[in-house]
Amino acid sequence: MMKPIAEKVGQLTMVGFDGLKPPPHILAWLASGRIGGIYLFARNIESPAQVKRLINDCRAAAKHPILVGIDQEGGIVARLRAGFSESPGAMALGAGGDCQLAEDIAYMLGREMAALGINWNFAPVADIAHQRDNPSVGTRSVGRDPRLVSEIVAAQIRGFQRTGLAATVKHFPGLGQSVIDTHDAPATVKGSLSRLQAEDLLPFRAAVAAGVGCVMLTHVIYDALDSELPATLSPRIVNGLLRRELGFDGAVCTDCMEMKAMTDAFGPGESAVLTLLAGVDLALFSHSREAQDEAYDAVLNAALSGRISEERIDLSLLRVQALKHRFGLKNAPPLEIVGCAAHRALALQAARAGTVMEKRGGALPLNASSKQIVLIEFSSQGSPDADKTLTQSRFALLLSQRIRLASSHLIDPKAAVASITTELSGVLSGAETVILVTRNAHMQPEQLRLAQFVCDSARQAILVCVRNPYDAGMIQGADSVICTNGDSGPSLEAAVDAICGDFSPGGKLTVEI
After folding, report:
1. CA-CA to 325 of 20 to 30 Å: which in 135, 156, 161, 348?
2. Which position among 183, 223, 297, 409 bears the catalytic label?
3. What is the pLDDT of residues 239-263, one digit of tens each?
4. What is the C-alpha to C-alpha distance for residues 280 and 296, in angstroms, rounded to an integer?
């Protein structure tokens, strides 16, 4: 039966919400066909059983089949953590250089999502790590080599989609050249079209060839393609580059439309209209009911006035329905596989494969009976995509279970450098070995200065870079260096194992440091 225009418009919108249960208005919207589905954040996650109940409640209320999405890239961006299987991120998979292992990790994550009822994952990341100062890509990228990125991305897509859920390659046409986070402000990339074609588009071509279910756009303006509109709103990029040139005929979605790059320049309503006019099929509004209402009303009014033709809406509706039909989770695994021992073992295997080590002296491996070992660890300043509930002292806990520490110090990188150096001077003078853990010191001058002070003052220093590996190229004087290419649980565990000599890391850096 033909849907009324109000339902057609609603099916092209995905929304997020607060809470461990779907609020009444979400259930009402699902029941009336007012939204095409939901997507989840850490704020919606308590346990596997709770998530499954939440999703079942949404599906039971829905008038039409729905998409249930989530950001479960692995590594720094993972909404499912405590009680679920964590995995190393993309850069660690790239450092391991094993496409089959990358596919197996994606399959593992996909199985757990499918067991919950999630049928749409906003991964993998196909952005190339062009800029060490890029605030939003980092270890979410496989690395700098477009061919390696392409191979790992295609493997991840195969792994995710073997489980019956849709993979979403992002952020088209490539976010890696930007140094501005679109969560915070508009961003423009100036550069030649030839470089984009030769490098950034290669992983997206590989994704299309691998049969990826969905492509997610970025809110960045690409001067060589469209100097006025960001990719999310640009017909030249969506219909021209993605559909005609790359030949992708599946569903296309936006990144969150409530990022400041969108809201500051266009507002929720107009941006929702423009993205449909550009050829996008699904608009994502993550947070505010007010923004979600404004977007829906604007698109419905544009459809009723003829600004957006019903033919245009029907085309997107067909693509969305095809996505739901293709990824309907017909044979979802049991909930018991979530967080199982086999999954944890596989994640540690991948994390070890993605760990890089350089021995510059005799600091490693550490003897468990060594005296006066001090841990100095920098906490994280966070990321808009990071799970804010993740405890940053997990490394200290893991290490203390293996090695007796004289002391452990968790330092806020924003604290006053002078007071910390005075405090640490006495600690360092009595230390035999210092284990120094940094997190993106290359982007934080205070952390970088303190980290260098520690290495200069220590008798013997082991530097462990647990976010971007660029820190290893900027901090001098360490006797040994370990790069984990991400600080998810398995990667931290792999670093401790390497320190204790359980294995000898053989990963290779995928970026220049």
Report:
1. 156
2. 183
3. 999 999 999 999 999 999 999 888 8
4. 15
